[in-house]
Design brief:
mainly alpha, 209 residues, globular, single chain
Length: 209
């Protein structure tokens, strides 16, 4: 029985190598994205939408293509569209009520975001940014983690990144991220798509103006 040990060790080493390789695929683009976003926050970039596409959307897509994976499998498909529409409509209605109440109860939100006219350009720019944002968090990151871990672990992982990304924002918003992150993750899992969260997240952002 002893000669089998080297084979077992070799198999374990190979499994660990491929696990590390897959985790690198998950982590590296997210880290590069974080650096890019932090850098662009220091300058007046072209627009938030362009910033999102360049630093939140492009890096993970390039990583997936390099590993010969289909980006459409990471939340970009229509998925279970009937569920997506239902979640989207309910989410938008809840969002409008909750955000408006929060704006009245917590002046820090108004102070942080200010007031802006909802022009077509602002709406389009916000939509593009939230599309890129939801892709890297609920699309790329969540679906990558879900392939390696359980649903609960994958959801906790993307929610943790989602919460960390809100550091520096008003405390009430930061405290809400664990709940909203977990809910958005479950919706992404059930619909196999990010599109309903893109709509909801866009409405959240526009509602604070």
């Amino acid at each position: 029985m002893q000669p089998a040990t080297p084979i077992l060790n070799q198999a374990e080493t190979s499994a660990r190598y491929w696990t590390a390789r897959r985790l690198l695929l998950i982590v590296l683009p997210v880290m590069l994205t974080a650096v890019g976003v932090l850098l662009t926050r220091q300058v007046d970039f072209i627009s938030r939408g362009v910033e999102g596409l360049l630093f939140l959307f492009v890096p993970p897509v390039v990583a997936l293509l390099l590993f010969r994976l289909n980006p459409l499998d990471y939340g970009l498909r229509i998925g279970r569209w009937k569920h997506g529409i239902a979640y989207g409509v309910v989410g938008v209605l809840i969002t409008i009520v909750v955000v408006r109440l929060a704006m009245g109860l917590f002046p820090s939100l108004t102070d942080y975001y200010g007031s802006r006219d909802l022009t077509p350009r602002l709406i389009a720019d916000t939509f593009l940014y939230m599309f890129a944002w939801e892709f890297i968090i609920r699309g790329y990151l969540f679906h990558s983690l879900e392939k390696e871990f359980s649903l609960g672990e994958a959801n906790a992982g993307q929610t943790a990144v989602f919460a960390i990304s809100h550091f520096g924002k008003p405390m009430v918003e930061l405290l809400s991220t664990p709940f909203t992150g977990l809910v958005f993750g479950l919706v992404a899992h059930r619909t196999r798509s990010i599109h309903s969260m893109v709509v909801i997240h866009t409405v959240i952002q526009l509602a604070v103006y």
